[in-house]
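Hello,

Our lab assistant flagged a job as stuck in the queue for most of the afternoon. It eventually completed. Since we weren't sure the result was trustworthy after the delay, we are filing this so someone can double-check. Below is the sequence as submitted and the structure that was eventually returned. Let us know if re-running is recommended.
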Amino acid sequence: MTSHTPADTFPRQYARTLRYTVGAPRSFSVAPDGSRVVFLRSRSGSDRANLLWILDTATGEERIAADPAVLLGGGEEDLSPAEKARRERSRESSAGIVGYALDAAGARAAFALSGRLFTADLVTGATAELPAQGPLLDPRLSPDGAYVAYANTSGELRLTRADGSGDKVLAEPDGPNVTWGQAEFIAQEEMDRDRGFWWSPEGDRLLVERADDSPVGRWWIADPANPDREPAEVAYPAAGTANAEVGLWVLDLHGGRTEVAWDRTAFPYLGRVHWSSGGVPLLQVQSRDQRSQRILGVDVTTGATEVLHEEKDGTWLELFRGVPAWTPDGKLVRISDEGGARALVVGDRAVTGADLHLRSVVTVTEDEVFFTASGGDTETDPEPGWIAVGRISHDGKRLGWESSNGRPFTSVTSAVHGGGITVRATAEPDLPGSLVQVARDLPEGVVVDDVATIASYAETPVITARPVFRFAGERRIPTAVFLPTGYDRERDGLLPVLMDPYGGPHGQRVVQAHNPHLNSQWFADQGFAVVVADGRGTPGRGPAWEKSIAFDFAGATLDDQVDALQALAEEFPLDLGRVAIRGWSYGGYLAALAVLRRPDVFHAAVAGAPVTDWALYDTHYTERYLGDPAERPEVYAANSLSGYAAGLERPLMIIHGLADDNVVAAHTLRLSSALLAAGRPHTVLPLSGVTHITPQEEVAENLLLLQVDFVKRSLGL
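-- returned structure --
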């Protein structure tokens, strides 16, 4: 890690380093022969521009494979609106090379810079720009490295030879709102799917998404600070309204095409696509209410599909990274909640049980499945928040862990496997940043042989986080507690409390790591006892825990914040007469909800980018938890905030970026109007030009300072 600038305060450093991610290695791939690891990393903890790097696993030597400054001649990046939108969907704030794709041998990489197409030969070190019709998106090499396919902002899917010759259109839009080879908004934002085309293992054809967002309602995101600018048009599928029409086609390299057929009326969501040599292409498709889904096998000659597995759930079904997939000998691999535990299934057999909670599949080899998991049996977990990389044989008889420093149960932030090599980034509560280790598999599958450690250039934080982990209350709610640095109970007495949750689906905050807790520690160092609680609905505790919030955001998630607070007060110096709460996105919703519904517990709130009216949020997310608003209007009313406006008795600050196209500013404006109509004073802080994330250094820094000032004043400190 690199040292920090001497004049840095934590808010300034935290914002400037993008939460200490700048300079840290990321986006790992392993060549199939295990000879090299490919990854992204910038030159320092203050440089946001990522370079493409290679680690030689035989020598441990690192070298640069592609440098954006060289390839662009020192010029600035020029990003298209489509690329900016893609980065917003993936919460990408860095620059330079932010993604790449390899050929099957891991010998060549393709990537985009400023909407232009580049390749890098990872063996010889040569780089080249290829002629392309851009601005382009998501270039991907064919498995044999002979071709590059790419989408562009005109909606085309194009193909060029890897030597730069023969660029041509494979598919072009047949309507004004049609795109080929691009994931639609809802897939990028909510399904964790950012790809829109997939090569065959032989490199002779592709599966390509065609998306038409003509049915989707149009919203307009204006910039009130610059009234001379035309508002941006956004196709936003709000809950209960139409989604984009998504289909899939098989395209060969000579212009032939075959449509893939499935019941898109019953299963309109295309959640996952997998194409490997283990079997036919796999699709995972979901019903609109996400209570049923199918895994389909595709006949690439006719486009016909066969149902390989169908799953139903009375609440909802999740999508997982890495599955469905094939084993090399043709067994279907998936993750299922069918037995009440989130288990790994190989063929027709669950190979893990209730003691593990599966998170993702990393890779499938001839003999084993590598996966990430946390504890399913929380009664026996010593501490909350661990995530580990495991490996299990296809028959479930051999289970081992990819350990870090002899401690398998830390927090794995990323993992890849290939060619007998595992790359894992692990974090621990008492060590800043993460440790990226490259290890060679050993036959017994229990321990690993470390080959190298990939260096991190991320800055060392100017403060040290000191989380104390607990399972709180009867429900054993995972929590982390932070006290001011140097706090002495006899001298300092009880502390005002700041609850600091996300507290909702897909947002685990209590993890066995250091850097994710720095923000909470900084707030603690301002004179608070800070509590982070992952109540029901957050990931990592089992299907029943996650699904207990169905149709009830406003009840279960808020109740668990209250219960955690009261349980922790029996051990920690919490002044329950001075309790504030802050949060962003779902955490912002929860913070505003807290002072509206429970003023007896919460005395002030800061709500950042809150969802205040769930009818204004998107289809796939909102309908999964709250149902169809046309069928359950009472559920939407009960879980939205404006109906509680008259009950505001406590100070409330609402912060919102006016350029936010995910949680649009209308959420805050409607709640503010309802509060004004009810005669309830409140504070609104609009952020001009800011989206759902706040990469702007000065804005991010000052937001922290303003929140502390507001909370202190509101609690009479």
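-- support follow-up --
The delay was a queue issue, not a problem with the job. The result is valid. The longest helix spans residues 697-714. The chain has a mean pLDDT of 93.
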